[in-house]
Design a protein that fits this description.
3-stranded antiparallel β-sheet, Immunoglobulin-like, about 190 residues, about 20% helix, 10 strands
């Protein structure tokens, strides 16, 4: 996988994705509650479409938590922006990771290069990236399991498994819905006055 440099347009897209799912700031005026997302289960994945008007209103999502403590172990979100023909990926892992090491995504036929963490919050540490389409294609053709490989602060490596069952069909459905529901920003919308 080739990780592309982050452009201003990409930062705008990632910020939009974060704002679509993030909390409202205290200084913002209260707004009507957002409509719940449309959710469809496809294999072990959820295809979610949110009531937002942007270039990537849908994603496919999977989350794993500890059955006893309910602590987040891994969440994986993949959105598609039809106007850019690009995917937007966000992976969340627990805190106490070696930030400088990043993480890798691995399937039976593919291993990504290290992807750097973008930030950590009390929910965990996040990577947000624009993977090339070759990574997504490899995931659609892989077996039933994948791994997110992380390194803890203690120096030990951990493989966090996730399911790829239904990934290909969920991806196709998400891309189809994103193409139908995406709103393209007018030309010059990001231009500075």
């Amino acid at each position: 996988m080739t990780v592309k440099p982050v452009s201003a347009a990409l930062l705008t897209i990632l910020a939009g994705l974060a704002l679509a799912c993030g909390p409202v700031r205290a200084q913002e005026a209260p707004q009507a509650p957002a409509a719940p997302p449309e959710i469809k289960s496809v294999g072990d994945w959820e295809v979610r479409c949110f009531a937002v008007k942007n270039g990537h209103p849908c994603d496919l999502f999977q989350q794993m938590a500890n059955k006893d403590t309910k602590q987040l172990i891994l969440s994986f979100s993949l959105a598609y922006d039809p106007s850019l023909d690009r995917h937007l990926m966000q992976i969340t892992v627990p805190l106490d990771v070696a930030l400088q090491k990043g993480l890798t995504v691995q399937t039976d036929s593919y291993t990504s290069p290290a992807i750097k963490y973008r930030m950590c919050t009390r929910e965990g540490c996040f990577v947000q990236t624009v993977p090339d389409n070759a990574m997504i294609e490899a995931m659609t053709k892989s077996g039933d399991t994948g791994k997110v490989n992380i390194v803890g602060d203690n120096g030990k490596s951990y493989a966090l498994q996730f399911s790829l069952k239904g990934f290909s069909a969920a991806h196709d459905d998400m891309v189809s819905q994103a193409r139908a529901k995406a709103v393209t920003a007018p030309k010059g919308a990001n231009a500075k006055p």
